[in-house]
Each structure stands twice: as structure tokens, then as C-alpha cells.
Amino acid sequence: MGTDKSMLAEYELEILAPAGGRPAMEAAVAAGADAVYFGLQKLNARQGAENFSAEALPDTVAYLHSRQVKAYLTLNIALAQRELGLAARTLMLAQQSGVDAVLVCDPALLEMHPFFPGLTFHFSTQAGISSSAGMRAARELGLSRVVLARELSAAEVRAAAAVPGIETEVFVQGALCFSCSGRCLLSSWGGGRSGNRGSCASPCRVVWESAEGASQRPLSMYDLCLVEYLEQLRDYGVRSLKIEGRLKTASWVSAAVQLYRQALSGELPEDELRRQASALGDYTGRPLTAGFFAGVRREITGESARRNVQERRLARPESEAPARQGLQIAVSEDERGGTLWHFSQSDRQHTLRIPPQKIAVPKRAIGLSSILERLEQVVPRSALPLQITCPPGLEEKMLPRRCAAEVQATLAEFLRRSQSGGSGTVRTALPPELNAYLQREATACSLNRRSLGAVPDTVRLGLEELALLGEASDCLAERKLILACYPRNAAEVSELCAVAATWHQNLLALSLPAVVYEDDIVLLRPVLDFAREAAITIEVNSWDTWQLAREAGNDCAAGAGLAVLNANAARFLSKQGCRYSTVSSEIDAEQLQDLCQQAETALLLCVFARPALMQTRVELPAEFSAERQARLRDSRGISLRPRREGAVTVLRPEEPYDWRSLRNPQVRVAHLQVDLCGSTDPRGDLQAIKSGPFLFNYERKLR
């Protein structure tokens, strides 16, 4: 804890391994992992993994503990109102099973924590902790450890780890996200599959085209490798080295754990460490980088330049007779060139068809034999024996790499449904006081008087949009304003405070950035001091800024960076001093109605916005950069516009979502907001409602 060197011997670096299923867990243990993290079939951030059934949790924990390995359970998604009962039963089962820690991010679980005195909570990287202020916040909230945001530099990791009384966990190997940790809405925007709920469709990995016609993968990150920085992390006081990879094979997990075990012991020379690390990178075919930790932000995205090296030969059944109770995978090709993947087990069957694919660049493709080999390694023991059937010659067929991920995800879902208890239901009794908490009748908040369809009373905008309005800013006179601030220097702080003073009578809040790093704190303190003296509410958008506002004595509210999907989370934020909570823009209509029905605290609902779909520290290639006022467009027609906002580049959609034409009396909130951030025509956006607007997830199911 902290950087007290006298305690380093007591707190040796922990090697924390991923387990997407039982084979990976056993491989991690055999390779020397100190701890393993994994999820159940629902409510974890890797829904595409095999995961573990609730019935198997006690035996899973017992298996790990019998080998002196710790068990960490992931419950790290944004929770909808109807999922709170399942979340509570999952926590109860975790406590009964002896789980060593639960990774969380939803504030509703923090409110439940007192009901589970036997459980230790860790903040998931989805909580977006990015500074020493966030570490202090986590400590005050009762967390024992924080999984730090992946985009931190070495100096920022050191500052976070120096906070006493709470442990730090750092990702050292595996995939990286282009967006700052816990701050991505792109997958949800494109089809309702939320990365914040474990269903990310990885749109960052696809080809994007610039306005000039350049086609690249500017959002596809290289893979992380910090194997050469372990002594540095040890010196900083970091407690745990985390390996990403719950969607990877058991053999990859084994190799990764062995690499870090040998690196810590000093058994391997540097050139051999690099060679073995490079072999790990062959799994995805992406180059490796120390990235943000080493201060590198350029040229860490793009095409893979590595050849995929398969780990072992494809196994074949000993007998040609079909396996009666095991899993059968049959691959064939239809008359139109589509690839058929037929899965069967007992009386269940499912067929996936991959349409004919054009392979323009072979290095971006993967052979069927390689895909089958991966599938063989991720099949759980419960599905054995395994029989794979593939006609001669078809194994050489090439498919885009994204198809391999689709096949693996489809198989995982098929196996999940085939298992007994595969629905993800957790059956365990809850104590009366917890049942009473979950079933309490909500006392409606009198401030939530505006129904969806009423005229919005609040406008959110930044200095850039205010300047675009110019003399037309009189259209704001009858509305409350939330002024977004992301200063990059002292001059911008002074300008912000001057503008806030001018609009003081209209200001509902000054909104702080969603992402704050160590060097940003000094710039925000004068803003906090000004707001306190002027009696202006501070809208906090992360636990980092909540802590800064708390320490400065500011009144605060919770913005989109701490957005909620359930009323319990809003109530917890209210208990932490937030005057209102912002409803997640990802929410669907049913979830929104459920939230409003149970809300006991003031809510803000954004009915028009170009939300920040990604926030990143990556320096984009020139043709895609904010400096060139670039546009990025994918094959689905999603068009993004990057721009600098404080410490990060924010990618906002060119077209907004707009709920102003909707009518729903069941949705009642304190504030209806029009968010003009990112608008090039703020007056037009404020006054005009287009026909047939994009509704984001309102009319589809958020997954």
C-alpha cells in the first residue's frame, strides 16, 4: 500500500491472471498465478467469454483456495434497475463461497456493501480512476483496491500508488482500449451493445475512412506489454500485475503467467523476455507497446504487421463415431460460398452462417484451421468429448479476423444456454434486511416534475459553443445553463471564470471534465475555489473530480461521467452530496421507466446530444486528427468528429440523438437538458427539431 518501501517485502507483487472459463483458470494456477479473476454468466464485463455458472462458484473458489490462489469475481458493469436483485444474490453467493474480492463499478453496489461485511470490494477499471484524487475517493468510499485506468503514464501510476491505505492494480499485458477506461459509448451507439455492460462489439478494430478517402484502423490499439517495467512498478508500490485476456485461450494464459513469473524471479535475460513476450503478441497478430506507461501516444494504433502463429495442432477425435453427449462442431460451405458453423450438444443445435468474405489483404485474415484450433482450446471440460468435422481442403479457407471473434462468441453463447443453470440465475436466500432494502417502496422525489416531451429547461455548452452563438446567446436567457469546462492552461481558467461570472444568474452548474490526470488537478483548483466563493454548483463527472470538489468544499451534482442506469445508484450519489444525478444516455425506454418509477432523488435527463462516444489520449494519425478538423466514417455510416477537450481528444458523432419529439408521462425528471457540446450550429440545434431523428437506444434493447 502506498510507496512505503519498508512494506514492499510484505506486499510482494501479485500476478493476477484472467479466466474466461475453467480451462484457463486451471492453466493459470498451474503456471503460477497468485490470483485469478473471472465472471459469472451475467453481470460481468466479458459476456462473450464462457464464464462460470453460479452453481460452480463454491467449487471454483474452493479449487483456487486449495492451491493458495485468490479468487476475484467481476461484477463490473452498469446495472439496470431490474438487475439489482440478481446483483445482490451474486454478492451473497460470493460471500458464502469465500470470494476474496469483487470488482465493481456501479454506485448501487457501493450502497449495498454494508450488507456484505465479509466481502472486499475493488474498483474495476470501468470506474475510470485516473489520479491520486480518485484513489482518495475510492478509499473514502470503502474500496480496498483500485484497478487503475490503462492510459496512465509511469509518473501518474506512481502518484496513484503513493496514496496510503488503498492498493493499486495495473494492467501489464493484453489488449488495450482506444478510449479512456470506462468512457466508451461507440459500440452502444452503433447497435445497443454496450462496452459498459460487457457486450462491446469492438468497433474500434474496424476500418475507418477519412474525409480525404484514406482507409485505416486508427482506433485499433496495439497490445500492451510492461514485462520490462516490473521493478519500476514494484518501486512505486503497485500491489498487483493484471493480465488482460478472459477471451483468450488457456495456453495463452499459461504462457503469459509463466512469462511474468519468470520475469519477477529474474530467471530470464532481457532478450529472452522480449522473445517470449513477442510470442504472446502472435496470438492477436498485433504489435506490442509499453504505450502510455512509457509516455508513448503516437503510432500505437493501426494495422497488424505480425503473422499469427498458432499454438498447437488441431486435435481430432479418436473415433469417427459421433460423440453422444459431448459437443460437436461441423464446418461446411453452402452453394453461395458462405461458411456454416453447426454446433450441437445433446438435443440443442445452432447454426451460424458467415457470408462470403472478400480478403483484400491476407495478413488481415485467419484460416479456418486456426479458428478451429482456438475453439478447441476454449471448450470447457463440461462440453467434452469434442468432435470437430471439417471437409478436406476447407481448413485452408481464409476469413477476416473479426469472423473468428464472432464464431467464438456464438459458441460461448451456445454453451452457456446448453449448460444446466445456463440462464445465469443465482439461487440463494437473502437476509430479511437486504430483501427489505431491495423491495422498499420508493418515495417519489418532488423535484422530478418534468415529463419526457416537456420543453427542456437546461442547456449544456462550452466556451466554443457560446462563442458560436455570439449575439444570438439571448436564446439562452430563459434557461438554466451548465457550462462545460476543460481548461488546458491558466489563461483558459481565467476566461472560464469570467464567463461563468457573466452568466452567474443562469448557471445551474459548472461541469468538470470526465477524465482528469495528475497534472490537471492544479488547473482545476482555481475553478473550484471560484465556484465555492460564487455559490455555483460543480457538476462532477468522475470519482476523481467528486473527491476534488469534496475537498474544496463545493456543492456538487453528478454529470454524465457518473451517469446512472438505476435509482439506487442515484440515491447513493445523493448521499455523497450530489444535488442531482444524470441518467445514462445509453438507457433504453424500459430501463428509463423503471429508473424513474423508483427514483427518490433528483434526476437530469439529456434529450439532445452529440455525446462523447470516445475520449482518448492517443495522438491520431494526421489525416484523422482534431487539428485537421477531420471526419472518421465507418462502413455503417457512423461519422465521428474529433476535437480537443482538455487533456483528451473527444470523438463525437456528427449527427445527434434527439428525444425532444418523444412523449412519455412515465418518465419524470427534475431537468431536461439539451447538450450543445460539439455543435457547429448551436442556435439551430436548440430551436429546430428534425423529423425522424436518431433515438440512440430508446427504441431498442440496451445489451
Name the descriptors.
alpha/beta; eight-stranded parallel beta barrel; 703 residues; eight-stranded parallel barrel; TIM Barrel
Number of domains: 4
Please report the total strand number as a whole number.
33
Please tell me the overall pLDDT. Answer: 90
The stretches of 5 or more residues where confidence is low (pLDDT under 50) are 1-10, 305-324
How many distinct helices?
A: 20
Overall outline: globular
CATH level 3 topology of the largest domain = TIM Barrel
Structural class: alpha/beta
Distance between the termini: 37 Å
CATH architecture of the largest domain: Alpha-Beta Barrel
Biggest beta sheet attributes: 8 strands, parallel, barrel
Amount of helix: 25-40%
Describe this structure in words.
With 703 residues, this protein is an alpha/beta fold. The chain has four domains: 5-174 and 222-294, Aldolase class I (TIM Barrel, Alpha-Beta Barrel); 185-220 and 611-654, no CATH class; 327-417, no CATH class; 444-609 and 657-687, TIM Barrel. Helix content is 29%, strand content 21%. The chain contains 20 helices and 33 strands. The strands form six sheets. An eight-stranded parallel beta barrel has the order 1-2-3-4-5-6-7-11, surrounded by six helices. Helix 2 (57-66) links the parallel strand 2 (35-39) and strand 3 (70-75). Helix 1 (22-31) runs parallel beside helix 9 and helix 15 (490-502) runs parallel beside helix 16 (521-534).
How are the SSEs ordered, and which strands pair?
Elements: E1 14-18, H1 22-31, E2 35-39, H2 57-66, E3 70-75, H3 84-97, E4 101-104, H4 107-112, E5 121-123, H5 132-140, E6 145-147, H6 154-161, E7 167-174, H7 186-191, E8 208-210, E9 215-216, E10 223-225, H8 230-236, E11 240-243, H9 250-265, H10 270-281, E12 288-289, E13 327-333, E14 339-345, E15 348-354, E16 365-367, H11 368-378, E17 386-389, E18 398-400, H12 401-418, H13 432-439, E19 450-452, E20 458-462, H14 463-469, E21 480-484, H15 490-502, E22 507-511, H16 521-534, E23 538-540, H17 543-552, E24 556-558, H18 567-575, E25 578-582, H19 589-598, E26 603-609, E27 614-616, E28 632-633, E29 639-645, E30 648-653, E31 657-658, E32 664-669, E33 671-675, H20 682-687
Parallel strand pairs: 1-2, 1-11, 2-3, 3-4, 4-5, 5-6, 6-7, 7-11, 10-12, 13-17, 20-21, 20-33, 21-22, 22-23, 23-24, 24-25, 25-26, 26-33
Antiparallel strand pairs: 7-10, 8-9, 8-28, 13-14, 14-15, 16-18, 19-32, 26-31, 27-30, 28-29, 29-30
